[in-house]
Known about the structure:
Strand content: under 5%
Number of strands: 0
Mean pLDDT: 82
Helix content: 40-55%
Shape: globular
Structural class: mainly alpha
Number of domains: 1
Low-confidence stretches: none
Order of helices and strands: HHHH
Amino acid sequence: MSSIKLHLEQAEFDAVERFALSLNVKPEVVLYCALNRLMLDSGNPALRAEIVDTWDWHRTNLPLWSDSAGGPHGYEGKPDADPAPSRYLSEHRQP
């Protein structure tokens, strides 16, 4: 069997893992389902462009669905921020 390794930032993995736990499955199941849905729509020109665009920006940005990465706010005089779940997901989640 062939394999593909996917390296995620911790903030990305945490969001995927939390979603998988809510479904009582492993994170690999979520990723396989996502790949399945993507491949079923692979003829869509907009999707094809989005794949290229996403790969370009992923090196410097986290996706909206990931947790926040947290980080220092010393320059603003605030305490360090702890990672937090994505507000985007909580605002756009389907019932």
